[in-house]
Amino acid sequence: MKTFDEAVSYLVSKAKITHKTETVPVAEALGRVLAEPIVSSVNVPPHDNSQMDGYALHLYDLTHEDTFAVSQRIPAGSHPQPLACGTVARIFTGAPIPENANAVVMQEETEMVGDKVKINATEPKAGQNIRRTGDDIRVGETILEAGHRLRAQDLGLITSIGIGEVTVFQRLKIATFTTGDELLEPGEAPQPGKIFNANRYVLAGAVPQLGFELIDLGHVEDTLEATVEAMKQAASVADVVMTTGGVSVGEEDHIKPAIDQLGSLDMWKVKMKPGKPLAYGDIQGTPFIGLPGNPVSAFATFSLFARPYLLRMQGVENICLKPIWAQADFDWLKPGFRREFARARLISDKESAQMKLELYHNQSSGVLNSTVWADGFAVIPEDSTIQKGDLVAFYSFNDMI
Length: 401
What we know:
- Helices cover 20% and strands 31% of the residues.
- By secondary structure, the chain is an alpha/beta fold.
- The strands form seven sheets. It has a six-stranded mixed beta sheet with strand order 7-4-6-5-9-8.
- The two termini are 28 Å apart.
């Protein structure tokens, strides 16, 4: 039985980064992964500019007087004239600093005296309230590396240097299908001995949420022949094939014998809960991941195993989840030999004003409601107990998308 860390490391080591790229407008690049670094050809800001509304002046003039005529008005986007000696310029946030000025005094530190401006600032300094050319970004600076998954703030940064298109890796195509005569689709009437197909829709949400293209081949007849044909079709149209359940050695489980005919399968048990069984292999050269059949186990293993594997295939460099450390608001007094990922949510303790972790009352791998109630996974290490007040690592679901 592999440890959790061994299993994750092994799976990620098998991920082969896609080499397919395309160029897309920045407006359509959210969630995409850069295939090339972004290098700036301009300075940001492109010129010295004012950090606030006020008056631009040369500090030498303040040694002679404190009341000045206003020689020009400089809004953002304008091109100012050089500052006339012994005057100030009315200037607004973001506006260029005129030649001969070396400081900006904020409006609140001035007052009007007739048609002139009195400077009330105490000992202003050279460069005060001025953003210098290139303070943010310099010409030739790499602002984003290849392998970076683009967020909203990244799109703003890219466009701030005038770039309108980026080269990204093409979206991975993930093919999935379901088998099992016991499964019903939403909208069908309940039937004795049957259950609704929740796992199909967990994947239907999770795969696109990470920025991949989902190819849902639907429900496949529960025979070996039909499963083999579905596997062939999935492998021919996708970069990765992923299923839930059906990889055991039972007579009614056809996933394993189908893959044995078409490729190879490595099945292992992982020292984790929920989600002990996991399968990895290939179908005619296309990678295959088999997740457990229990809904919570499928959700957990997708989040903790499939996610980093797929992101690495997509070209993402930083695939590590960063834990939040919070105090336990629970006792976990029975140590287990497996690492447990308990569904938990953050709560605010009114007395201490600290965030604490509360566990869902039923941690069964079949209770999908726990994943909706929770904010993430609280990590219970192997062979460990937890008492109220202990610090516990917590992985937020929001950090997994």
